Write the C-alpha cells for this entry.
Amino acid sequence: MTKILIADDDRVVLLTLGEGLREAGFEVIEARDGLQALELCKSEAPELALLDIRMPGLDGLELARRLRDETRVPFVFFSAYGDDDFVERAVEIGALGYLVKPLSIASILPMIRTALARAQDISGLEGALKSNRTIATAVGMLMRTDGTDQATAFEHLRQRARSERRKLEDVARSMIDTKRDARL
C-alpha cells in the first residue's frame, strides 16, 4: 500500500484529506507542523508528502528544502495561496506539484498518481546515473548547456533516445563523442 504523509496545521484539512486518501486505498500518516512532518518522513519514509505552505515549526517551503536535502521523500504543495511567487518557489525547491485549496479528493487523486509516477521516474533516473557513467556524463552535459536540473536533462536524453529508437546509453555516448570531436 502506498504511504502518503499529509502535513497541515488545520485539523479539518488533515481529517478530510486523510479520510479521503484512505478510502482511495492509500496508507496515510499525518503531521500538524513542519518539524513533526520532517521526523515522520525520516522514520516512516512515505512515497509522497503533501505539504501545506504555512505551518508552525517549519513552514512548507523550508520543510521541502529539508526533505530534499535530508531524505528521498518527494513532495507536493497545497496552499490557500496560488500566486506566482509561491508556485515559482515551489518549482525551484523541486515540488512535483502545487494545488490550491480548497481541495477535493476527486480533484487531487490524478495529481497524486502523477506525482507518484514522476517520483518513480526520478528514482529510476538516480539509479541509472549511479550505475552508468556514460548516461551520467551526458546528463551533466545537458544540464550545463541547457541550464536545466538533473531530472529535466535526463528526460530530454530519454525522449531523444525514444525518438531516434536507440538505446539511452548509445545516445549518451554519441553526445559525448560529438562534444569530444568538436574540441579536437
About this structure: The first strand starts at residue 3 and ends at 7. Strands lie at 3-7, 27-31, 48-52, 75-79, 98-100. The two ends are 54 Å apart (CA to CA).
